[in-house]
Amino acid sequence: MRVSRSVLAALLAMAALAWGATARAEPVKLRMGYVVPGADASLLMFKKAGIAKHEGTTYTLDSIHFQGTPPMITALAAGEIDLAPLAYSTVSFAVQNAGMGDLRIISDVFQDGVDDYYSNEYMVLKDSPIRTVEDMKGHVAVTNAAGSAVDIALRAMLKKHGLEDKKGVTIVEAGFPNMQAMLTDHKVDLMIAVRPFSANPTLRAEARTLFTQKDAIGRSQMIILTARAPFLQKNRAAVTDFLEDSLRELHWYSDPKNHDEVVKIFAENTKLPPQVWQSWVFTKGDFYRDPNGVPDLAALQANIETQRQLGFLKGEIDVKKLADLSYIEEAAKRAK
Questions:
Q1: So where are the chain's domains?
Q2: Class for the domain spanning 121-217
């Protein structure tokens, strides 16, 4: 069948319009929460040129700061963020308390207490009379946010030793950057020291570790990247591209030959001196990050079970039903 010139011209015009619309498609804006730069923050925040192949083309990243992971649940529910690096504790709260049955675990962010890698520290002043957890009776501890992972570990450790908030010990809240001053000013008796704050030379000179998160709850899948299923389904390509770029960043930052440049990048972007980062960042003095971005679901399940056993959680949660690792698996194949 022969096609007239006018019909052919119309078809070509339609094809051109369709191609133009595709070419002009705006990158998907990914709004991602974070708490601590260099820990749960995306490495793309630090802008190592030439690694992220897709940023600015298929997606852009907007990083939004939170004091802890629990407030991210509200933001995720309200549609104010799209990607949430939630702690093991807040994943369960999001599902049970906020009714987010469509929450999906898509990748690892970092893990605490893995082999001889770093574990968060719970510190007191060097001259403090507190030598054991039992000695915290009648004293004050500071946490970043009730229900956060480090908060749950603190409460779990205290409960093991017969102490609870307002029953033998007082727990107050503050941002991580303010905790050291509160400790040294004797406003609190115990603080939670997370990277990078725990590497501060003045803190190391003034305080000592009473126990670690690993001591309190064992190995933990500390932070997991999550999103809601409808968003993921709608933006599968952009999310996979973001994860691919994230893995490429992780591989570069983890390469020992790049260590000095990594320290310089982190110092410049966080306005913290290089010595805060030099001895530990992306070494075994740092948290463990799976090189393929795969979370430890068995550890996560155990962490949530600990919450339940200690009375922080009602009912059971099967994390395998929440996990959709197809995004990170595809990203890992591309990033190799």
A1: 25-112+220-335, 121-217
A2: alpha beta
